[in-house]
Amino acid sequence: xxxxxxxxxxxxxxxxxxxxxxxxxxxxxxxxxxxxxxxxxxxxxxxxxxxxxxxxxxxxxxxxxxxxxxxxxxxxxxxxxxxxxxxxxxxxxxxxxxxxxxxxxxxxxxxxxxxxxxxxxxxxxxxxxxxxxxxxxxxxxxxxxxxxxxxxxxxxxxxxxxxxxxxxxxxxxxxxxxxxxxxxxxxxxxxx
Length: 192
Prior knowledge:
Helices cover 32% and strands 28% of the residues. The protein is of the alpha+beta class.
């Protein structure tokens, strides 16, 4: 598995020079987005996807979204991909098995979010300080993306306090990545 990350802070979303590297679908999405940072994140995510896929399969690849909104390559070539972005970063995971990736910029958050979206044991772990809110959040997001069902899986229906989750007879494992900027949490989740 490979995880690619890029700092998107140098992408000016109003400069259409980026459009020649983007799919028509991404251009239309970018043009609907109001906030500049979100436009830059979206542009950066597809630039990174194109780089990662071209680097790993040595040719251009077309991608689609399935009915659950999960990204897939039209010609799979044995690779699975997933994207995420937060703050000044976009990330892309590429693997030979189903994979999910999530990055979150750590900031102050309301403890009621943990009570709403996490299991009681996860909420307790956060309150005790043994794990951070964003560690749990990024692991949960990467898991539902790896499974390919997104938020149709309630986030409080499974725990990510261990390094693996059993789901529908399959094991999904987590891997953490560090960025130079410590203010981010980045996890991938992949089918074992």
